[in-house]
TrEMBL record, chain B:
This is NADH-quinone oxidoreductase subunit H. PANTHER family: NADH DEHYDROGENASE SUBUNIT 1, NADH-UBIQUINONE OXIDOREDUCTASE CHAIN 1. It is found in: Cell membrane; Membrane. Coiled coil: none annotated. Keywords: Membrane, NAD, Transmembrane, Transmembrane helix.
From TrEMBL, chain C:
This is Uncharacterized protein. It comes from Streptomyces smyrnaeus. Residues 100-113, 122-136 have a biased composition (Basic and acidic residues). Residues 100-152 are annotated as: Disordered.
Length: 189, 309, 403
């Protein structure tokens, strides 16, 4: 790793940390969300500089979508009206300080205590392929099962949260067409 | 072989993108002139460019209690992301940076408009702007997954995320020919992330321009420019992804790239005025119930072809 | 300051015009729209986008404060003019464009948030929340926060209060619909009619003129009335298509409307009108986007005093625009008929009933149709009924037409 890469790495690391600090010091939900997004984009940059461009860019890609959706939800469900009032992001200060301090110490200790393997050979030219193989080779079954579990969770949560079931929509004999929906969808149901 | 071009490509790529966007605006102006019964002259085509001066001269706008920082970052994000996206698009056989994950890079830049538009809607502290910002998120949830599967189809067909290699993998048969669903879904996605024409829902006339409603001056210029830059960038990306890149008889590769880009762009501009705005309450269901399964099936086709090769 | 002068000349070369048609000003509005279309001066959708504020139609003292607030939201350089009659439109626009080139017009004296209204969209887009007492909590910029209430889906969502009107692009100027939104669902809609505050009620509505004149004993040919009715319905169609975001066909509708009013012969108009009717009427996309919106059974419409196309359509938004299209095609075939207008022939929006113009009943239907709809559908529903602001303003004076 040459000097330029090191400098970029350090800069991105500092920016990511600064974004993280902003998350707890800004007092608007929108700013907090986008401070977090900025931080995560820097993390994506860090991963890219470390030689995993696919993971790095995908982090940026997914986090932008995720944070925008999160902004919508955070603002919708804040306890003060719409999360629009200035508010503090710090709660249970002493407890959280203890927990986060302990976790930080544990992680840092782990970095130094772990017997890292010595570097053998050259890194592969196409790390994307390696990542794919690692995830989808031997762990294929895990990934597929995980995918289905996630999907089932999302569908299940939505079904549980909806207070209208199919009998409300299609009538007691499920023969009501079109469905009794407050607003019709786009595929003729 | 696609190679990384030298330093001069760094200013050249945005300049080419801008040229394409100006041509698109001029083409749209000519179509508008035809619809309105005005003479179709060169003057009519370039008149919309007066907007640039008009907006630069306009007074910036102040609103009570805006979030200026977020508003400005949102407004700037849209055109900047469009310019960054084009870095991986080869022009002929040269790209500014032929990244090994070019397709993902393009996708990531395109997704940045989600953040940009939501912020641009949030910033001014006005109801209709905010509704416009939310509308883009709804639209994004509808167009993004089919678009991603379209990109995945092309990448799978070429077994590479490198845009140059995807273009090369189409020697003989364009992906647009044997992945038509992916191609169409991709073009619809281009219109959607440039929020123009039928996908102009976030800036709808029914909510008084939505995201654009409170912008004037440079803010408005940047957002409007961002839309047309994105349209051009999407059209340029369609060429290596689905239309064989710079390959073609007779002409040099860069000429084929330019020609194909302009043809795709012309098609997109023509569609702009031909359809009403697709409202999210109808389009989301269509996207999830019809387009997502269709585009997954489409992605299966190159996967099976590649496995049997 | 050559740079400034050059920039201002560029602004004046293609200014965006915020066109405000006052009730009773349909003729002036049509002249202005035609002029802007032919000169390629874009219609501004919001004050933020506009360089020129052009008020078309008779001066309405009741609307003056609202017009002034619009003016405050225009960013400099800017110019404004009032044109009461169609003939005054051209000179007024020219004067504004000259004004724009004068550097002195770039004054910072008017900030665009002059009245502290956070929503400088067309006047009335006030997105302020319900006033609730927050126990002296400090409000950002002194703006009140939203209160909550139960909603359609059993949630407690914030209530957002938005007013549509009195000025809005492609909106019948005058009436204001005050909406209470939760999410994008309209929970409550209240119609605020301009009523007497507009002044004397104005002349006979432009679109209903042939019928009113026939009622006063003048001899009006069927062709003459059919021409006016077809133009009125094309005007309504243009507004609906514009709200639906179909730029191409909206422009076509307005072009055909202007051609009709210019007195183009039926033979010249017929192919264009038929092609337009075919494209719009058979458009699957438009049908897909509008089906099921604002259902209005014929019986319910008639019970509310609505006659004309809205009652005959007996259905949702597509049923109404298809009725308009069929009417336009039929009327364009009758342009040459010179027989006197029969008494049972209805005007563009139906026959006057109970001493009031048909638009009054149309406007009264709006709250019922809007409640429960989504905001995205609201403008389409209003545009598909399209109450005529002229008729609403004239309502106060009563109807002279025969019942």
């Amino acid at each position: 790793m040459d000097t330029v890469q090191l400098a970029v790495l350090a800069a991105l690391g500092v920016l990511a940390l600064a974004g993280g600090v902003l998350v707890f010091t800004c007092n608007s939900m929108a700013r907090v969300t986008f401070a977090l997004l900025g931080s995560l984009c820097c993390v994506g940059g860090v991963v890219t500089v470390l030689g995993l461009p696919y993971l790095g860019v995908v982090i940026v890609l997914m986090m932008v979508m995720e944070m925008v959706v999160m902004a919508v939800f955070m603002i919708a469900y804040m306890m003060n009206p719409a999360g629009l009032m200035p508010m503090s992001m710090l709660h249970n200060k002493r407890g959280s300080l203890a927990v986060s301090g302990a976790v930080f110490v544990a992680l840092v200790t782990a970095v130094f205590v772990t017997p890292w393997p010595a570097k053998v050979g050259e890194p592969p030219s196409d790390t994307t392929f390696q990542v794919g193989k690692a995830l989808m080779g031997e762990q294929m079954l895990t990934m597929v099962v995980l995918g289905f579990v996630l999907l089932a969770t999302m569908v299940g949560a939505t079904v549980l949260a909806t207070h209208r079931g199919r009998y409300d929509r299609f009538g007691d004999d499920l023969d009501q067409r079109p469905a009794r929906d407050p607003v019709r969808g786009g595929v003729g149901r | 072989m696609t190679e990384t071009a030298s330093w001069w490509s760094l200013p050249a790529a945005p300049a080419l993108l801008l040229t394409g966007a100006v041509l698109a605006v001029a083409g749209d102006a000519l179509l508008a002139a035809r619809d309105a019964g005005r003479p179709r002259t060169v003057a009519a085509a370039v008149r919309p460019l007066l907007e640039v001066v008009r907006l630069l001269a306009a007074q910036p706008r102040r609103m009570p209690a805006p979030d200026r920082l977020l508003w400005r970052s949102g407004v700037v994000t849209v055109p900047v992301a469009a310019v960054l996206s084009v870095l991986v698009v080869p022009f002929g056989h040269r790209a500014v940076a032929d990244l090994s994950v070019g397709v993902v890079w393009f996708n990531a830049m395109e997704v940045l408009t989600w953040a940009g538009l939501w912020l641009a809607g949030w910033g001014p502290n006005a109801a209709f702007s905010l509704i416009g910002g939310y509308r883009f998120v709804a639209q994004g949830l509808a167009y993004e997954l089919p678009l991603m599967f379209a990109l995945i189809s092309a990448a799978t067909g070429a077994q590479s995320l490198r845009v140059g290699e995807i273009a090369e993998a189409q020697q003989g048969l364009w992906f647009a020919v044997w992945m038509p669903v992916a191609f169409v879904v991709y073009l619809a996605g281009v219109l959607a992330f440039s929020f123009l024409g039928p996908f102009g829902y976030p800036v709808g006339r029914d909510i008084a321009s939505g995201v654009l409603g409170e912008t004037s001056g440079v803010d408005r210029l940047l957002l409007q420019a961002g839309r047309w830059l994105w349209l051009t960038s999407g059209a340029a990306m369609a060429v290596p992804l689905f239309l064989g890149g710079g390959a073609g008889p007779g002409l040099p590769a860069w000429a084929w790239s330019a020609l194909k880009t302009l043809l795709v762009l012309a098609l997109l501009v023509w569609v702009l005025r031909r359809l009403p705005v697709l409202r999210a309450d109808r389009y989301v269901e269509l996207a999830w119930v019809v387009l997502v399964p269709l585009s997954i099936l489409q992605a299966l086709v190159p996967a099976l072809v590649v496995l049997n090769r | 300051m050559d740079l400034t002068a050059g920039a201002l000349r560029a602004v004046a070369a293609r200014p965006h015009v915020l066109l405000v048609a006052t009730p009773g000003g349909t003729a002036a509005r049509l002249a202005a729209e035609r002029r802007l279309r032919l000169d390629d001066l874009p219609l501004a959708r919001t004050p933020a986008e506009a360089d020129i504020l052009l008020v078309a139609g008779p001066d309405r003292p009741g609307l003056r404060p609202a017009v002034d607030r619009l003016w405050q939201h225009l960013p400099a350089p800017r110019a404004r003019a009032h044109a009461a009659t169609p003939d005054a439109i051209g000179p007024a626009l020219e004067r504004c464009r000259t004004d724009l080139t004068r550097p002195s017009r770039v004054d910072a004296g008017h900030s665009s948030d002059g009245d502290g209204n956070g929503n400088g969209n067309h006047e009335g887009h006030k997105g302020h929340g319900d006033h609730h007492d927050h126990g002296g909590m400090e409000m950002p910029a002194g703006l009140p926060m939203a209160g909550t209430g139960p909603d359609r889906d059993g949630l407690e969502l914030d209530q957002l209060h938005i007013a549509l009107g009195p000025f809005l692009i492609d909106w019948p100027t005058g009436p204001t619909v005050r909406l209470t939104l939760q999410g994008d669902v309209i929970q409550r809609a209240e119609l605020e009619e301009p009523g007497e505050q507009l002044g004397d009620g104005g002349d006979v509505p432009f679109w209903a003129e042939p019928w009113a004149r026939a009622a006063e004993g003048e001899r009006i040919g069927i062709g003459q009335a059919a021409r006016r009715r077809a133009a009125a319905q094309l005007d309504s169609l243009g507004r609906l298509l514009a709200v639906a975001g179909w730029a191409g066909e909206a422009t076509t509708a307005r072009r055909l409307r202007d051609d009709l009013l210019d007195g183009a012969p039926g033979a010249a108009l017929r192919p264009g009108v038929r092609r337009f009717a075919r494209r719009v009427g058979r458009s699957r996309t438009l049908y897909w986007l509008t089906r099921g919106l604002g259902p209005l059974a014929g019986s319910r419409a008639r019970a509310a005093g609505v006659g004309g196309p809205a009652a005959r359509a007996d259905g949702d938004v597509p049923a109404r625009y298809r009725t308009w299209l069929a009417d336009v095609v039929r009327d364009v075939d009758r342009l040459a008929e010179t027989a006197p207008l029969p008494a049972d022939e209805e005007g563009p929006r139906g026959r006057p009933a109970g001493g009031e113009w048909p638009s009054a009943a149309l406007a009264r239907l709006l709250p019922d149709l809007l409640e429960g709809a989504e905001l995205a559908a609201a403008r389409l529903i209003v545009a598909s009924l399209d109450p005529d602001p002229d008729e609403l303003a004239a309502a106060a004076r009563g109807v002279t037409a025969r019942d």
